[in-house]
Amino acid sequence: MNDLELIFSMLGEAATTEIAKVENPAGLLENKKVAKRGGNIAGIARNQMEKETGKKIVSMKNYLPIIRNKKKLK
Q1: pLDDT in tens, 12-28
Q2: d(CA 25, CA 48)
Q3: Labelling 46: which of 1, 2, 29, 38 has CA 20 to 30 A away?
Q4: Using CB atoms within 10 A of its CB, is residue 8 exposed (0-12), middle (13-18) or buried (19+)?
């Protein structure tokens, strides 16, 4: 995950949180609808950024470094 992927992910989470604070959804189904709306906000922003720059935001990169020789539990 690169910096822009992280930023747009955070935007979706923040938008979802703000919508939930305003609407105070109760139950799984209402929260799911709010989460979809928050994600949609981030999706629109990401699509606009891709349109303006001509480059894709989503990458196959992993934000965390790969740990070699990691000990495994037995």
Answers
A1: 999 999 999 999 999 99
A2: 29
A3: 29
A4: buried
